[in-house]
Design a protein that fits this description.
By secondary structure, the protein is of the alpha/beta class. The protein folds into three domains: 3-36 and 226-308 and 414-464, 3-Layer(bba) Sandwich (FAD/NAD(P)-binding domain); 97-218, no CATH class; 310-411, Polyamine Oxidase, Chain A, domain 2, CATH 3.90.660.20. Helices cover 36% and strands 23% of the residues. It has helices spanning 11-22, 62-70, 101-106, 111-132, 145-153, 155-170, 190-198, 215-218, 231-243, 285-291, 299-306, 370-373, 376-389, 417-429, 438-441, 448-464, and strands at 3-7, 26-30, 42-45, 48-51, 79-82, 86-90, 93-96, 223-226, 247-249, 254-261, 264-269, 273-276, 278-281, 292-293, 310-321, 330-333, 340-343, 356-365, 398-411, 434-436. The strands form five sheets. Strands 7-6-16-17-18-15-19 form a seven-stranded mixed sheet, with helices on both faces. Helix 1 runs parallel beside helix 16 (448-464), helix 5 runs antiparallel to helix 6 and helix 11 crosses helix 14 (417-429). The longest helix is centred in the N-terminal third of the chain and has 22 residues, at 111-132. It is globular. The two termini are 13 Å apart. 42% of the residues are buried.
Length: 465
């Protein structure tokens, strides 16, 4: 029986631990947080339940879907289907997100759809001519967001949506960002969007392979949400791991990882040291390299891993008087202090008392930026002034508020990031029985069901070996 240590109790690490513990391997999960779930945890705030951003469970991956639903077999009512309702405040119009036939024809006025189509037609013609004339094309990893958006949607939508929203969210110029910053599942173009909207809206999901759907199609999947927050899924997986005889150590900070020989490792924390045959890390790559011997002696590897940076997130939670301020689950905004506003009660009424609503605001920033270093009070009042200006909330509506800061959330795909990523992962993969997986450990921007798939797959690989 192998002794396996998993660094990080987020969804990916827990998923791997779940499958490995089922086969009676000796599994230990270590996390510095006081609760499981990572970016998918639910935080209890004065008898209210808040997620880090709005989450809901959906997947075209049948194994993942069935496995998660099975966690609630004892009480299926504790996870229920929720109707997805998402909007975007775009050019002074609230439009459905992702695009729908309704939003194209009725929500943006008569002029914007025409301008969008003419701009796309011009771009499509130019791209087709270049292809016919065999003009040299860029390598796919060097295509910027600007080039991808202009080629696939035209300059009108690029200048009015992709450029301002991308730069607001990532705090970088679109010319400096790889088009891969948009996950493959969220990739679509003008033609595919229209085809889905008017021809293929109600596709048969059961005939699709995992990872084959674009954003519009994935957003059409049925979604589910646990009664008291998305983090219940992580908590139930943790219960399974413990019932299988494995352990989860929380509030324990990993300070050093040492490769002892070809068959064993030592993990040192602020509380204890452990020996292990296999390590699965879900830690941010730059942090993992920094604490791991002999990686932290390799200057070239350190330099490459330092270039793999993560966008941080500041979350502002508002407990307000009962009031539906959005008319949807969440809404994206341009030119506001926040990128997205969510009404968490539209996911489940049980996350707060019956006379209250919970609103969450998401602000992306870089670690140690001016925004990151602001006081909680400054952040709250800046957001509140914007909400009041848009007449969404008033001072009297706010009952309580809370601000939390999350340092590593989104991998930042700069141009040529793949060179740094490939070098870093290749060095890690040279070490037998060492795996780095997940959003942070693989530098992979994916959804929660896709993170579970990574955990399941690495466990199958270990079991096979």
């Amino acid at each position: 029986m192998k002794k396996i240590i998993i660094l990080g109790a987020g969804i990916t690490g827990l998923s791997a631990a779940w499958k490995l513990s089922e086969k009676k391997h000796d599994v230990l999960v270590i996390d510095k947080d006081h609760q499981v779930g990572g970016l998918a945890k639910t935080i209890k705030f004065n008898n209210n339940y808040v997620d880090i951003g709005p989450h809901s469970f959906f997947s075209e991956d049948k194994e993942i879907f069935d496995t998660v639903k099975s966690l609630f077999d004892d009480n299926p009512k504790k996870i229920f289907k929720v109707e997805r309702s998402v909007k975007m405040f775009f050019m002074n119009h609230y439009v459905d997100y992702p695009l729908s036939a309704k939003s194209i024809l009725f929500q943006m006025g008569p002029i914007i759809p025409i301008l969008c189509f003419l701009s796309f037609l011009k771009s499509f013609t130019s791209t087709s001519l270049n292809s016919i004339l065999n003009k040299q094309q860029k390598n796919i990893d060097q295509i910027t967001i600007k080039e991808w958006a202009t080629n696939n949607f035209g300059s009108y939508l690029y200048n009015n949506f992709f450029k301002p929203y991308t730069e607001q969210f990532w705090k970088l110029k679109t010319e400096d960002l790889s088009h891969q910053v948009i996950p493959a599942s969220k990739k679509l173009d003008f033609v595919k969007t229209l085809k889905h909207l008017f021809i293929n809206k109600y596709l048969e999901i059961s005939k699709r392979e995992p990872g084959s759907l674009n954003l519009v199609q994935r957003e059409s999947l049925p979604t589910f949400y646990p009664e008291k927050g998305f983090g219940v899924i992580a908590e139930k997986i943790a219960e399974k791991i413990k019932s299988n005889g494995s352990r989860i150590n929380l509030s324990e900070n990993i300070t050093k990882v040492k490769k002892l020989n070809d068959k064993s490792f030592e993990i040192i924390t602020n509380k204890e040291s452990y020996k292990s045959d296999i390590i699965i890390s879900t830690l941010p790559l730059d942090n993992f390299i920094k604490i791991t011997e002999p990686f932290n002696e390799n200057e070239k590897l350190i330099n490459h891993s330092k270039e793999l940076q993560y966008l941080a997130l500041v979350m502002v939670y508002l407990i307000i008087k009962k009031k539906n301020i959005l008319g949807c689950q969440y809404c994206y905004f341009l030119n506001r202090p926040y990128n997205r506003v969510s009404n968490l009660n539209s996911f489940s009424e049980k996350v707060s008392s019956s006379d209250r609503n919970i609103i969450s605001l998401e602000i992306s920033c870089h670690k140690n930026s001016e925004m990151w270093n602001r006081s909680e009070n400054e952040i709250y009042h800046n957001c509140l002034e914007s909400l009041k200006k848009d007449k969404l909330l008033s001072d009297e509506d706010i009952l309580e508020w809370k601000v939390i800061k999350v340092p590593n959330v989104y991998p930042i795909y700069k141009i040529n990031y793949e060179k740094n990523l490939n070098f870093t992962l290749n060095e890690i993969n040279k070490v037998n029985n060492l795996y780095s997986i997940g959003r942070l450990g693989q530098f992979y921007y994916g959804d929660i069901d896709q993170m579970m798939r990574l955990g399941f797959d690495v466990s199958k690989k270990i079991l096979k070996n």
